[in-house]
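Marked as duplicate of an earlier ticket. Keeping the data here for the record.
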Amino acid sequence: MTNIAELTPQVVWEHFQTLCDIPRPSKHEQPLRDYLQGWAELRGLTTQLDGAGNLLIRKPATPGYENRRGVVLQGHLDMVCQANAGVAHDFFKDPIRPILKEGWLIAENTTLGADNGIGVALALAVLNSEELEHGPLEVLLTVDEEAGMGGALGLDARLLQGQYLINIDTEEWGEFYLGCAGGVDVNIRRDCHYEAVPSNFQVAQLTVKGLSGGHSGVDIHLGRGNANKILIRLIHECGLLFDLRVAAFHGGSARNALPREASAVIAFPASVLPELEAKLQAFQSLLRSELAGVDEGVCLTMVPAQAQQVLAAADQQTIFAALHAAPHGVRRMSQQVAGVVETSNNLGVMVLAEGKLFVNFMVRSLRDSGATLLASEIEALFMLAACEVEQEGAYPGWAPQPHSELLTLFHAVYRQEFGQTAKEQVIHAGLECGIIGAKYPAMDMVSFGPNIRGAHAPGERVEVASVAKAWQLLQALLRAIPSKEINC
């Protein structure tokens, strides 16, 4: 294990060490939030909690900077919790223990939480610094970002005072983000009928594993495998060939992560076992060919299992036909921003157990109308399958403002500090800027961050050198914030 607090810049990494030590799954951020609130108050900083559980910390301007425009530094406290199969890690109790490898800090078998722990650590380092000169500062640390943007959606529209907001939650150093996708969750539920496993049937557990996973927005265009869709496809095909029956299904564990693993308890006539095994072998070879270059490590396994009941034949046919037909992946590329996905969705979580079916689709779009249309199409499909359908947690996208004063300042400071020109980007992921911007329409916003790879999947890593550059840029930006009466 690496002693994170010894990395450079130490003032940033010591805070990230704290974030690794204190568990922070979505909706369970209170221990970390309470710690940070106490930490801030011991330093004489003003803190405030809003009704959604977001923590705001205020730091007054340093002498001579009182007339500068107010700045809000913003990040989220929670992290996506994913671990490789067979890894015994309790995200509610166990700390994250990363290692340093070739200039990257990496959690090899779990998510690291650099998304958004590094952004939070950078903001805390600003609060901690006694040398940094800056105007009035607010640090907004939201909750429940990864599980539905609950903190931002519940943010008090009277809480913030700053004119500029710097979101520190993007993952490509040297790029400034000025727009993001909005989205909505589509939840599918259905009560299912069961019948006894026929007496001549054999029971087994069928598993899809070995996929890379990743962020369901940022990585959606890479063509990686979705374990849920793969297993649904296999069950659909084998149901027609072998009278295969389903007893249970579990796939994916996070709505905003590409599912890496899925398993189903199945039953089939014992006489077709050799043919079924041959089908699985052929299907695995086909998948490795289809996913060559992105997920050729995909693996199918089948082991003996037990079950007393299986889905009634009519229910299975209806449910799995709808799931097989359901969309997943990129729907449309943007015509305004080259190379950026406009609309997509992820079949992220599916559970069939104890007579209940639950499926979650996470829909994203740069256009709110695009998200509305795709979500309504999914809803219509599953209504035909006699399912209950609920759309929830809708949040707006962040419309780009390419001529913003804050963006102009970002570019000027970046050229001054690094002698290069930064790129501008729109991200196909849900930043909180869209929601915050709807509540504070006059606030000017830009997002940036260091290099992070593999967010939302085990093996997540952050480049140490880019964190130092992000810290350098953030300090220079805060020193350069203009006075209230001066335009950039």
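See parent ticket for discussion. The two ends are 45 Å apart (CA to CA).
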